[in-house]
Structures are given as C-alpha cells and as structure tokens.
Amino acid sequence: MATDTSDGKAVAQPVLRVSGLSKTYRRKGAGWQRSEVIVAAQDVAIEIFAGQTLALVGRSGSGKSTVARCVTRLEKPNSGQIWLEGTDIAQLDSRELRSLRPKLQMVFQDAATSMNPRFTAAEVIEEPLLIQKQADKSARRARAKKLMQEVGLSPQWADRSAMEFSGGQKQRLAIARALVLEPKLLVLDEALSGLDLSTEAQIANLLLDLQASHSLTYLLISHDLALVARLAETIAVMAKGKIVEQGPAAQVIANASHSETSALVASARAAQANLAALGVAL
Amino acid sequence: MKLPEPSSDALALVHKLSVTYEPDSGPPVRALDEASLEIQPGELVGILGESGSGKSTLGAALIRLLPSDARYDSGSVRFRGSDLLALSEPELRQIRGAEVALIPQDPALALNPVIKVGDQIAEVLHAHVRMTRRDGRLSVEALLAEVGFDQPRQIYHAYPHQLSGGQRQRVVIAQAMACRPALVIADEPTSKLDASLQAEILSLMRKIGQRHQTAFVLISHDPTVLAGFVDRIAVMYAGRVVEEGRTEDILRRPLHPYTQALVRLIGRYFPVAGTRTRFAAIEGEPPESTHRGVGCPFAPRCAEKMQVCTERDLQETRPQPSHRVSCFKYGN
Fold first, then answer.
1. Where are the domains of chain B?
2. Does the model's pTM come out above 0.80?
C-alpha cells in the first residue's frame, strides 16, 4: 500500500505497525494468596512492510506468543495500537474484526489441533470461506483444490480425512487454509517447530515460495534463531515481555548487544560447534 | 531371574527384525523390514532418520517395548544374550527399568500429573531394589542432585506441572537412571525443548552416561544432535538400517545418497542471515509401509537413481569393516 505525498512520491506504509502494545494477565491466587498481575507484553513496537518478514524470537515465556495472540486479536491488548494497513484493530469487537479477518491469518505449531478431526482436507481449507460467506460450493471446492496443489498436496486427496495426513502434510493443509482468504499478513506462531529437519526444510521453502507468489508479509514467532535468521529481514528479540533488541537480521546476529540475544546466538552456534568438533563443515 | 550366558559380547542385538503395526482401523503398516543393530556395553549409538523411517520402532524394539498392536514378524532381539521375544511379561519387567530404560520425547506425558515427582522416581527403585522408604528417598534426592537440581529435596515434593519442560526432562532422566541401567534408549529427548535447553540436557545425559558407563541409544532426526553425543550412527529409511558407521564417517563422508541428503539438512544451522535463501531439502516423503520388494526404497526420492535401483535386489556392502551401506552405487 502506498500513500501519495505532496511531492508525488509514494511512501510505503507498513502492513503491520504495532506500538505501545501491553498485555497483562491476572493470575488468581490459591486460597489466601493474593492474585498476581503478570506483565506478558510491555510497550512492544514493531512494523513490517509489504512482502517482508519480521521474526520475533525469544525463549518460552518471553511474551512472543502473547504478541502474536494480540496481533491476531485472539486476545485484546490492555493498551497500544495494532495498525493493520490503515486500521487500528487493537480494540475492535469481534463483529468489526470479522470483516478484517481475511487480511490477517495465522498458522500455529501442531496444526492438527486447530482442525476439526471430522473434516476432509478440502473442508479444512474451505472453512474460512464458509465463515466469511464467500463463494458458492463449487467455487469453494475449486479454490481448495488449487491451494492444495500450491502447497504441495495432491488435489486427489481432497476427500481424505485431514487426520490421515502426516505431520508435514497437516502443516501444509494449515497453510492452505490460512491462504484461502488471500490475506496480506500471515502470523506464523512456531509453525515450523516440532517438525523433523527434512519436513522443516520443505515447509520453510514452501513459505518462501508462497511469500513470493502471493506477496505475503510474515510475522514469524520462534524460539529458534538459526531457523528464522535466513527467513526474516528483521529480527526482534523478546525477553520478559519487552523487545530488548531489534534490527536487520545479519546485524542483530553479528553484533548482539543484549545478553538475551547473545544467549540465543550461542545456542544457535552450539550445533555448529558440535559439527566443527567432528570436522564437519558446510 | 538368571539370564543365560551371552552368545556374543553385545549388550543388545537386533537381528533382521521385521515388525508390522496392525491398528484397529486402517491397513497394517510394516514399520521394520529386516533391520539389524548391535549395541556394545557402554557404547553411545545414534539412530538417524526422518519421521516415519522406523527409528522409534527400532529403539523400542531393542528393549521389546513396542505397543500392543505391533507384531514381530521375524528376526530376533537379544539382550545380554537372552532372547527377549521368548521372555514372559514378568521376566521382561525385571529387565525393564533395572537393566534398560527409556527416556521419551515428551516428559509431560511420561510423568503422572498427580504424584510427586520424587515418589515417581522412588517407585522405580522400589520395584527393583529392596530398600527402606528412607533410603529410597535419599537415593532419589541424590539422583535429583546428579541431574543438576540445586535443591533436590524441594524438587522431590514438586508435582510435574510445577516444573518447567527442561526440569521435567531432568526428572525423567533421573528416573531412567535410578537403577543404573546398562542401556538407555532416548527417543528425541530434546525435540520439545527450546534450542538453549537442548544442548544442556544432551550434555547432562552424556555426562551421566559416561560416569556410569551406560550404553545410550539416542534417536533423532537431526544429525547435529547426534554429532555431539554418539560414537556410531545407524541411518534408517523405510524400516531398514541403510547405512551405519562411526559418527565422523557418517557425517563427513556419508555414502548413501539418503544419508548425504540428511547431512545437507544441517545447512539450516549455518544461515546467511536475512538472505531468504531456500533450504536444502529432500523432496517427497518416506513410504508409509515398507514391505521389502525389488530395488531400493529410496529410489523414488534419490537424485542419483540409476536403472538398476528399481530392478534388482539390494544387498548390504561393507566398504570398511566399521561401515556398512545398502546402495547400488557401492557394488551389488
């Protein structure tokens, strides 16, 4: 998206701009204990331009998934703005959100848990179209089959139960479903975690291909710095609910300034060290 | 129970084992197809392969711990020379836990949520060793200290949900090591953990294994996990061991095109940041069922496929005494 300025040049507007985002949870105390306020995200600011990828990395409990849940509005933030193209969606109600959903889709780890186990592959992909009351039955089926092809699943499997697919195939199915409404932004919350290296490589390549062919913008949530480093232009490191470091991927890795970033870089390098000790080089 | 004298010095030996799963719904799936593997006392061995290659089945078969819908079709499984497939369940129970132990992928599923973790470790001890409750508790505290807990007494009284994923995995390791087993099978023990915790848990397992001269079988899809841990790697595809050799040979000079492709996957650990370059990948998926037929099961995905690969029966060759491979490139 571009906005015209007075001198006639187009200035790019980010697909996603988050500013001042904060989210707290209240944990109820057991018995006599007082309830406790947990700050899961505090004053988080990120922006992603069209066709770009930002990776939000951190350990478990760092707050990265809270940000993902706020951006996708599975949670309502306590404060802050979430600009999706021109609209601040931070405080919208569910009815207002529904009309914006097509722009913003998500894929999680363990994709199967977000699928109706009775559905066939095609039904899984078509479900968002039904919810959005888009397209008739035959058009929906045609879209589903085309997407199966695009994500590397044979359209002949359209009527197979989604549960019969392997882990990697279910992840492909989840990606196809996320694409059926032709979104601008995909939020991928640990979408490559828990896969074996072989499947991970296939799905990562698929995400790169789809990003190019559908001009997608990605918000990647991951604990794995080595993996996201080559997928994302920008890396933001989270710890204890805050973004502690943010910048171009190569720069963040080469000149880690925060201890949390250094720790993530170190664990990414541990694997390299194991291999180097054996004289394995690439 | 007295075990017969071992026939060889192998601690555990799986010979040409074929296993079929017969689920209630759906067709039978052949998971092992004449797979062979030998573990020497104190040895650290890795099993490498994709999901669906049969590596977990082989690991569990080593201690005859396959689910009830598994059928042992042919071949043998020996532990200290005795035929595990011929033993009764009570006889097997004496071996499991005491002589062999399993560290599963997901510690959250392995632990009982309503029993204190210390009591769950003590349970293993009391099942195999006669000791007072007090001695049991002290042994458990010593075990918890050994796996790196600063305050073992407090951890003893914790419930699984009060611990983090990494702490739970430590508890499961303590439980596995409780009776000082001769063999531990660790099936993807770190794949559910953050990258930062993985290295920690692996080095802990290696340290404990070395201290007690425990043989370890580490199962993983990731060559780098095995690189820092094992002395020898068996590569599995379609229910068979398609290549086996010393770790440095398998990782530096892999022979089988499948092993070569698996080793190329480690490129993901050497990212050129921000470049969006494609990953080295093996296209396609392993076959669902692996009945031995004519030719090589990897041929459909193999970049070096020759005509012979789908025509003749595949034999194993040994380019070196310590290295075996099943591929037509190396004579057949």
1. 12-99+180-276, 108-178
2. yes
CA pair distance A1, A87, nearest whole angstrom: 13
Q: In this structure, how many other beta carbons lie within 10 angstroms of the beta carbon of residue B298?
A: 26
ipTM for the whole complex = 0.86
CB contacts of A198 in chain B (<8 Å) are 50-51, 221, 262, 265, 281-282
* A6: pLDDT strictly greater than 70: no
Asked, for residue A188, whether it belongs to a domain, the answer is no
pLDDT digits 0-9 by tens, B282-309? 988 888 776 667 889 999 999 999 999 9
Q: Domain end: A163, A182, A201, which one?
A: A182
Distance from CA of B231 to the nearest CA of A (A): 11
* Residue A282 placed within a domain: no
B196 interface with A at CB cutoff 8 Å: yes
Length of chain B: 332
A80: domain CATH number?
3.40.50.300
Domain around A257: 1-97+193-276
In this structure, the answer to whether residues A138 and A267 fall within a common structural domain is: no
B97 Ramachandran zone, left/alpha/beta (phi>0; psi -120 to 50): left
Instruction: State whether B274 and A249 contact (CB < 8 Å).
Output: yes
Domain match, A36 and A114 both = no
**Class at the top of the CATH hierarchy for domain B12-99+180-276:** alpha beta
Scored b (16 or more CB within 10 A) or e, A68-78 reads bbbbbbebebb
Q: How many domains does chain A have?
A: 2
User: Where are the extended beta strands (E) located within B27-67?
Assistant: 29-39, 44-48
Residue of A nearest to B267 (CA): A282
A271 and B269 in contact by Cβ < 8 A?
yes
Answer whether residue A222 is part of any domain.
yes
DSSP string, A204-241: HHHHHHHHHHTT-EEEEEES-HHHHHTT-SEEEEEETT
Residue B5's pLDDT band, with cuts at 50, 70 and 90, is very low
In a domain, A71, yes or no: yes
Q: What is the pLDDT of residues B208-239, one digit of tens each?
A: 989 999 999 999 999 999 998 899 999 999 99
- Taking the CA of residue A104 and the nearest CA in chain B, the distance in Å comes to 22
- Closest CB from A233, A267, A279 relative to B252: A279
Residues of B in contact with A268 (CB under 8 A): 195, 269
pLDDT for the residue A5: 46
